[in-house]
Amino acid sequence: MAMKDEDNNSAVAATNNQTGMKKGGDVGDNGACIDRQPDTVVHRAGLNPTAGRGSRSGPGAHAATGIRVLKRNMKRNGSRSCVTRKTRFGSRERDWLKGDTQRGCVCLYGGTVELQPPASGPQASSTPQTDLQLVLCSSNTTVEELCAQRDGKGLYVQLHGDLVRRLDPSERPLLMVYEYLTAMGYADPVRVQQEAANSDLSCLIRFYSERPVNADQQERTLLKGVFSVRKGKTQLHKWAERQVILCGTCLIVASVKDSLTGKMHILPLVGGKVEEVKRRQHCLMFSSAGSQAQTYFVNFDTLADYQRWHRQASKVVSQTVSLVDLSCYSLEAVPEYLFYSQDITHLNLRHNFMSLQGPGGLLNLPRFSQLKSLNLSHNRLGVFPECVCEILSLTELNLSCNSLHTVPAQIGNLQSLQTLSLDGNHLSSLPEELGGLCQLNSLGLSFNNFSHIPAVLERLSAVDKLAMAGNRVESLELSTLAAMSHLKNIDLRLNGLRWVKSENLEAVNQVTQLDLRDNCLDSLDLSTVCNLETLCCQRNQLGTLTLSGFTLRMLNASSNGLTTVNIYPVPNLLTHMDLSQNLLEYLPDWVCDCRKIEMLDVTHNLLSELPSRLLNSLSLRKLLAGNNRLQRVPDLLDHVPLEALDLQHNKLTELPESLFYKALNLKYLNMSANALESIPPSSQSEESLSTLQELYLTGNNLNENCGAVLVGHQNLRVLHIAYNQLLSFPASKLSKLELMEELNLSGNKLKTIPSTVSSCKKLHTLIAHSNNITVFPEILNLPEIKLVDLSCNELTEIQLPDSLPATLQELDLTGNSSLMLEHKTLNLFSHITTLKLDQKSTTTGDSQTVSTPWNHGYSEMSGQRNKLCVSVLAVDQFGDGVEACYGIFDGDRNEEVPRLLQCTMGDVLCEELQHSSVDTVYMCNTFLTSHRKLGMAGQKLGASALLCYIHHEPSDPGGLFSLTVANVGTCQAVLCRDGRPVPLSKVYSLENCTEEMDRVKLSKAIITEDNKVSGVTCCSRLLGCSYLSPWVLPKPYVRTEPLCAQDEFLILGNRALFERVSYQEAVCTVQAVRDPRAAAKKLCSLAQSYGCKDNIGAVVVSLHIGEDNCTCEPPVSTTEPRGPHPTPLPVSVTLGPSDPATLSSSSGIVSEFNSETSASEVGSEAGSTASDEHPSSGTAPRPERRCSLHPATTLCGIMVPGSAGTGTHPGLFQRQPSCATFSSNQSDNGLDSDDEAPLEGVISNGSKLEVEVDIHCCAFQLRSGAPESPKDQDLEKRGSDFSSGKMRRQNSVVVSATNGCLLAVCGREIADLKKSPSTSSLFGKKLSNGSVVAPEDSHNLIEVALEAPKKKSGYFTAPAQQDPEDQLIVPPCLEQEVREQLRGQSPIVSSLTGLSTTSSLKDPVWDHPHPPAFPPNLVPAPGPTPVLQQEVYDTAF
Question: Which residues lie below 8 Å from residue 878, measured CB to CB, with a gap of 6+?
């Protein structure tokens, strides 16, 4: 970067070979002096730079407004549109900013910046962009003052990449940013000031100096131009050039060229035709509808115009009503030409910023004489627009979410009004005049401030539904409803309702549907509501419930404390009843008398028996009675229509003998988590009529004899028989289950899977982990096989067919310690999307092992979803000391955000630990920063997140450990202490968190009937989904728990896991298994067998926290801050056989570093190549003596999760879609001539060598150690010696640190790496994640992570070409000098490879810039020391 500053007042940011000249002014203590800078001319590398010079102009140039403008014309590529923070300001500006936290910077973007990213990166590089202005001001600076300084007409703000609003002159932009950040969760004013100047923030809040131009929006609202026009189909009219306008529903043709003063010809197009005229090029024929149809021919100049007009006109003519949809266009007024369309009947102006005044303002809407429907919701009106009361033709009016406080009396003028929506406002009363609208039949008053039902409703006789959800009605007198005899449907959910009573026992005859969900009722007597058909009263505090059963058809009363339900008379019309999650010990007798009951849900109660009459009901089709205390199931006396039966989590030891041949319609049976020792036969004869399709028998005591019984269910598609006592599965029986699609045999004692499994031609999922299987089953010939999980077995070899099915997507072979795979086998697996293998240690000999008092395992299952939207972060060795970091991220329906968080959140935590040691501060800031770093992906998408950090307390570094947990959304953490579960997280869902529900209601969010904010998410706190701010926030719940010897393990899981597996069952499950990986696998398998269909993720961290005294030698210094900044490393580091990260000493070996993250991992991979050198013969520093609690810290950390220590499973080798491919010149099979065995972590395929390595969490893996030896320094000096000006690059190694993410590859592979879409981002900044502004340098890694979905457009696009200025090129003659200067700034790590690389890191604070960080050296291998060429890449920008 080159900078020029004539008056030493500020730094002008420019790219390489850019210069900028300015005239400066002094900045006073109050920031009163102004400085205006001219545009900086941008040139590509290799051209002669020129500079533009400007001067102050205008009468307000010296006004004391507290504003300072730094104007940059920046060259941009894709979404990379900002400089980094460290190059924004000069020292003078930084000093001025530090003087007061109310000072700051506002970034102003020009008006031609595209609102959405370009389709591809390379094209974007040539797209001209306007300049960016950085304005120094204070929080008191108004828009008016900013505009006076700039000679501008106004400023605009854009939130979350959505609508663009013009700011009022009195609004304060910087204060808006500060308030936005404070609402997000930032508490420190200094941190707020720093975040406000961060370029990534433009994805959340962005200011424009003029309204941005959106070509697509203009096309859809208005098309006009001067074209050749001819009227009529005959030749009597001649062609003439006229101005033509397409707006609304009409084609407008001027009678005079280039003038609108003459007569305008209006052609209504709704119901008409638009056709191509083939005898003329680029010509369209427009015709109106009806017998008096008119026709115009328009000849366009270009194909683009022709297509644009044809596309828009075709939409209009296809409409059946005269509808104009101008929603979400950021409009302040409708186009004036729209008023020519007098046939408009429906006008949608939702989500705009409509004003009253102006030619197209709301005051002119009465000009639409035929308007029937008007939607003005979400327009920030503030007051009810009385002008709409003059549109007497209106039948539908929507004014929702406009912050209205009153409704004017003029509303009574709209006598034709039938629908009035006033939801999401601040109304507390209605005018009496509203009662005169005799045709009004729908009135929306939800989410307002009403404390009672408005009396005016008594006069609105046509209104049949009372929609008052989310108000403040705390009491309901049924006599009030009796007076409103026309109301049939009452919606009073989310009102804080405390009691419902009837004082005079007057019957309420008209009410048929009543919704009282999510209130505070402790008892409910609705016996006087005698015609009630549907009652919803879930999530109250009901102990008793009394209803009238005359007309009752549906009852939903789950999640209460009901001990009894009284309904009289017997509800003979009742079809569906949900009484789950209550305290029922028995079912009332009337339940068995219901003649039409079809679905009964009584799960999670205290039932000890089921009435025989219930199970023999001739109407019951679905019975859910799981999680009770049932000990037996009554016999079936006759054929019953039962189709689904769920009796999981009871105490059943047997099933009725006649179950399957009496319930011939039974298709779903779940008997998991019982004590079954056998299952009944499918029929009384050899011929079976069973229609059973899904059978879940997990967690029983079944043995192999059950296989003979299962054969009778030949329609079986899904069979879960995991965690039983099966020693084998009869081969002859399995072959008869030809329709089997999903088979789970996990957790048994199987030694083999019968070869007859090949008869199951439709099998797509085989899960058989945690058995004793030694032979790989013959399943790879199945045509539809997708997922095979044979982890935690005893496999030794795999015999494969010549080719694998193209459908195979996931193969898990981890936990098979004796499995050896040949290169031929690995090559055959090369097309599998997710391949999980153990990495074998290849280094032996004397070494210093790293042990930690914990180890982990994880599991992820996609279930019946097509994609995996859960990601896991697991780092057993984190930071400088003995620390760990674990996380789980659940994107619900999106996979992008969880992958981004998986790749970056550890780095962010590591950075935040540098700034604060207070748990609530660094954890909260980690979440908020990660939220910001999501960029454009986080505008519309979001994810639940849970992060756990194990560490020593800063006040007691030698003491015991503490566990800090932070979470948003529905991911949860549970600690097992003395065999009991200790929940550590808070579930941020609207249904489970009352205070969050109150907060969301107070901010006037619309909560739909499924309890989702705006119908999007049930969570009130998420990372991402910023467009739902301020309803959905990223601020986490933080809790720190001291760990002790009684803490056995930690469980992390997403919503789907803990919805099916209770805390206590999860703890008991892990206690019984002990091995963390097998335990995590079991948790997920149990959740699936209990009925979960969604993505499931689980992490189990086994803790070995002792209270023994520490025996470590005292450290030399304890003043170093925690974090990713590397320090000199030991000369030689060799990992023990139990550690998954092993640095090979073989010649040319590429060591595999993997961070065992998740099956949804997205291929952020790079290779690490050890040099051919042999270890130094010099004296190595003596390793410190460490105890088991405080082992020595070494360079093992790149191998993130397969934790070290005894009993730890090896790290996983995961094959992911987007791998880094290195072309190899060493050999064709991935081996060197000296190698006698296949290399671990290497897949060879012809002339290409694929190295599978994960880099996403390397920043916090750098370990401190002993200082470098004199021999190291000598070798480093030799590495810089270039004889005769020649640079030897063949054996050189390039290490690039991108925000701490390690990339180490052979020097000769750099060219290929730059060409690879998966790795090119690591050598420069030119990758696009679709963000509207340039993310910080840490986003380089995010870009690589997003290559896996292989999306060609949208948020994630291909990386752009690299710009010359992205590289810091050091000439050979200056390299030694640069090396010495850099060594003076920061301790440069150098080892026997002579390797060191500079990389700029982000400057988190203006006045404390960090020195350049250098990644650790690779461990040298034996051999002579070659002369190395050092290549330096600047990847921070």
Answer: 884, 885, 906, 910, 949, 1197, 1260, 1261
